[in-house]
Amino acid sequence: MIRDGYQARWLGRDFEAAPGADGEIRLYSDGPTDGFEELRPGRYRRVVPAFEVEELRYVRTVCTWRGEPFVIVGEHDGWLRVEYAGGRAPVARRLGLDRVDQGVWQSWAPRDELEDVREEST
């Protein structure tokens, strides 16, 4: 599973989350869960006060591709969208990456070419 976003532990379970400026945390589930409202099929949400959340962290999936560090930001049909995390434009150009914004370089990579795929939490 490729994750890139907030995760919250609430009542001993992990949920995809979105912290709000209002001191509340929005928790999301893929299936029906007690107290969650259905937003659309396969997407449920519950808003809880931040003090009820046991842990809030940002999780992202990182890897090495062609000897350089990347963050995995998406996936489609066995290909992964990777974003260069090395911060060196000459290296990004040498790798043939697409510049999608100032200092942001991405590409599609075959899943089997990625090494050291792992999650990092902050």
Which SSEs are present, and which pair or pack?
Blueprint (H helix, E strand, L loop, with lengths): L3 E7 L2 E7 L4 E6 L7 E4 L2 E7 L5 E11 L2 E9 L2 E6 L4 H6 L3 E4 L2 E7 L4 E7 L1
Antiparallel strand pairs: 1-2, 1-6, 2-3, 3-5, 4-5, 6-7, 6-11, 7-8, 8-10, 9-10
What does this structure look like?
By secondary structure, this protein is mainly beta. Helix content is 5%, strand content 61%. It contains 1 helix and 11 strands, in the order ββββββββαβββ. It has one helix at residues 89-94, and strands at residues 4-10, 13-19, 24-29, 37-40, 43-49, 55-65, 68-76, 79-84, 98-101, 104-110, 115-121. Strands 1, 2, 3, 4, 5, 6, 7, 8, 9, 10 and 11 form an 11-stranded antiparallel β-sheet that branches. It is elongated, with a radius of gyration of 17 Å.
Give keywords:
mainly beta; eleven-stranded antiparallel sheet; 1 helix; 122 residues
Number of strands: 11
Beta percentage is over 45%
- Indicate the overall shape: elongated
Whole-number mean pLDDT:
95
Short description:
The protein is 5% helix and 61% strand. By secondary structure, the chain is mainly β.
